[in-house]
Amino acid sequence: MKISIFQGPLAPGSIDHMLAALRRAAAEASSQGANLLILPELFLTGYNIGAETVRALAQPANGAAAQEAATIARAYNIALLYGYPERDGTRIYNAALLIDCTGAPRANFRKLHLWGDIDKAVFTPGEDPAILADIDGVKIGILICYDVEFPELVRGLALRGADLIAVPTAQMQPFEFVSRSLIPTRAYENSVFIAYANHCGAEGHLIYTGESCIAAPDGTDLARANTGEMLITADLDPALLAKARSLNTFIADRRPALYGALTEPRA
User: Fold this and answer.
1) pLDDT by residue (tens digit) across 156-211?
2) If pLDDT is split at 50, 70 and 90, which confidence band does 266 have?
3) Measured distance CA(161)–CA(179) in Å, rounded
4) Which class is domain 2-253?
5) In a designed cystine with 121, which of 51, 55, 180, 204 is the match (CB 3.0 to 4.6 A)?
6) Please, are residues 195 and 184 in contact by the beta-carbon 8 Å criterion?
7) CB 86, CB 110: distance < 8 Å
8) H or E segment at 195?
9) 79 closest CA partner among 39, 43, 45, 46
10) What's the rounded Cα separation, in Å, for the pair 98 and 137?
């Protein structure tokens, strides 16, 4: 599989503008032979736009924006994963929707760990940490931003057979460490590919770090963005995955019976 990440600035509050950006990115990624295009957290609306604006712009998982994204996926024969605010009854979720190249929805993930007042002021946390989908023979797990910083979640997806963990994010200064060090480490310690798709530019008081990356299961970078707008693309070579899993035996050497006490709250 070949995957692309689009790292671009936001047009806060303008879903039409961001859908147009999605179409352009899909066309470019498809021209590079990508099977999957991954976009950042809350890509369709913006992240730091205020709780009332989020509520006003939220759509159901099968709403108008999803229908347009499906049209784009079909037009360019490419699967898409993008972040958006999901409305489900009276609840709003920080979600990411995976659509295959036929436009069919394959997974809808809801952010599990809410970060700071921006998330907690409007979103309900998700409850399913084990959402996976198969795209072109690659088993894909999904997390959103802060979720990947919890090692239990990445390990859980790896234990369920994930080959790739896709992470739409909205990472800001001063947390450059996450993309530069933590993401390659998570990939290494779980023998998985990780695609970390960030914004760039500024939004309100937030300055996004950029540096979207595609990390290999040996902890190296397959592709890494700078701090500006760009599309990055990389091949996910199954031979690299197999080699990493033969050399790195963390999964096989686990002793789960020892770990129960580690999940208990501190006294």
Assistant:
1) 999 999 999 999 999 999 999 999 999 999 999 999 999 999 999 999 999 999 99
2) low
3) 23
4) alpha beta
5) 51
6) no
7) yes
8) strand 193-197
9) 39
10) 15
Task: Tell me the catalytic residues.
Answer: 41, 111, 145
Domain limits, the chain: 2-253
Cis peptide before 174 (omega within 30 of 0): yes
Distance of alpha carbon 237 from alpha carbon 14, whole angstroms: 37
Tokens of 139: 């088993």
- In whole angstroms, what is the distance from residue 265 CA to residue 41 CA? 30
Q: Two tokens at 108?
A: 């809808």
| Alpha-carbon span 148 to 178, nearest angstrom | 9
Range 30-64 burial, b when 16+ CB lie within 10 A, else e? beeebbbbbbbbbbbbbbbbeeebbeebbbebebe
The percentage of the chain sitting over the pLDDT mark of 90, rounded to a whole number, equals: 94
Are the C-beta atoms of residues 143 and 151 closer than 8 Å to each other?
no
DSSP annotation of 214 reads: E
Helix crossing, 151-159 with 183-190: angle to 10°?
Answer: 40
Rounded distance between C-alpha atoms, residue 112 and residue 110, angstroms: 6
Strand partners, 59: 86
Average pLDDT across the chain, whole number: 96
Residue with tokens 């509520």: 55
Question: What would the pLDDT profile of 186-196 be if each residue is shown by its tens digit?
Answer: 999 999 999 99
Q: Which residues contact 15 (CB under 8 A, 6 or more apart)?
A: 44, 45, 57, 65
